[in-house]
Design goal:
The protein is of the alpha/beta class. It folds into 2 domains: 1-97 and 125-237, P-loop containing nucleotide triphosphate hydrolases (Rossmann fold); 240-344, Orthogonal Bundle (Helicase, Ruva Protein, domain 3). Helix content is 40%, strand content 15%. The longest helix is centred in the last third of the chain and has 17 residues, at 278-294. The chain starts with 26 loop residues before the first helix and ends with a helix.
């Protein structure tokens, strides 16, 4: 059994300096930022940012890619969150021998009546766990594109809409390469956030060991949020105020990944092969809104933007061969961009 984790970030007090100005939380806001976190906390220990990012994806409809070595409870975190939400959930365990029909569905012929019937695949649910997505061949990965971007699936020439809320939460192992198919840029760009899942601290791991001492006794998670409340919360996120200066700050960050010298970060010149697209700017503002919502505020601060920038940008910045040869990573570039752009 994989170790279990939780987060307290989304349930923590608002950001420093904003406590007095935080607005009273609405019922659905309190339910998601407190009750849902508490319920998930019955199973998960440690990794504060993980569940926060999953909730941000849920509140914005943005898909989330979790990357980490086996045994860090990536699958457990997603499954536990799904149990705490009264909605549909399906798990797709990707393997190299899968076909697109295993994800989308297919038409089945009835010889007795000489008719075809549609059997929808596991993608026709609300929360989709795409486990080890990089083990799927290219055709299967492509089958996810329409569902993730257009919120629809096509079977036998007929297009079917997916029910909201719809969210793909995928995991991948960055270490093992045998039998894997790296996600192409078009596929990985469909994910709003790419979250690195690291090891728990020694204290957290001790709590994991104590809690999971018996493999036959698992904490029960009850559903505390309904789909209608998720949709209501999304409308609340849309109403979060973003000041013009904060909007400019978002655009400045994204543009600096394309032309760093124009932003005054000359040491990054020649290191970036491809910068982030305008989709990154859109996703960064949406994620910052959701982060503010979880912290009980009605407005976005630059801190919200800086907190989410690495998760939004790390899979959208491609480095040159020379930069990789020097041991540089997209994390290094993003960190330098955050330091080089003036905070409003």
């Amino acid at each position: 059994m994989a170790p279990v984790m939780t987060t307290h970030e989304a349930a923590s007090t608002p950001d420093s300096g904003n406590e007095e100005s935080a607005a009273p939380q609405s019922g659905v806001q309190r339910k998601i930022s407190q009750e849902l976190i508490d319920e998930v906390g019955k199973v998960l220990v440690g990794q504060d940012a993980l569940v926060s990012r999953l909730l941000i994806g849920l509140l914005t409809g943005g898909h989330v890619l979790l990357e980490g070595v086996p045994g860090l409870a990536k699958t457990t975190a997603i499954r536990t969150l799904a149990q705490a939400i009264e909605t549909g959930f399906s798990r797709i365990q990707f393997t190299p021998d899968m076909l697109p029909a295993d994800v989308i569905g297919t038409e089945i012929f009835n010889p007795r009546e000489a008719t075809y019937s549609v059997k929808k695949g596991p993608i026709f649910s609300n929360l989709i766990l795409a486990d080890e997505i990089n083990r799927a061949p290219a055709k299967v990965q492509a089958a996810l594109l329409e569902a993730m971007q257009e919120r629809q699936g096509t079977i036998g020439g007929t297009t079917y809409r997916l029910e909201e809320p719809f969210l793909v939460l995928a995991t991948q192992n960055p270490i093992e390469q045998e039998g894997t198919y790296p996600l192409p840029e078009a596929q990985i760009d469909r994910f709003m956030l790419k979250v690195y899942v690291g090891y728990p601290s020694k204290e957290e791991e001790r709590r994991i060991v104590d809690r999971m001492a018996s493999p036959f006794v698992e904490p029960r998670v009850r559903p505390v949020v309904k789909p209608q409340e998720i949709l209501e919360a999304r409308r609340g996120v849309d109403e979060i105020f973003v000041d013009e200066k904060v909007r400019d700050y978002i655009v400045d960050l994204v543009h600096a990944t394309r032309t760093p010298s124009a932003a005054g970060i000359k040491e990054l010149e020649g290191m970036i092969e491809m910068g982030a697209s305008p989709r990154a700017s859109i996703y960064l503002m949406r994620a910052a809104k959701a982060h503010a919502f979880l912290h009980g505020r009605t407005y976005v601060t630059p801190h919200d933007v800086k907190t989410l920038a690495p998760d939004v940008l790390r899979h959208r910045v491609a480095l040159t061969y020379e930069a990789e040869a020097e041991g540089k990573t997209s994390e290094d570039v993003i960190e330098r961009v955050l330091l080089g752009i003036l905070v409003p």
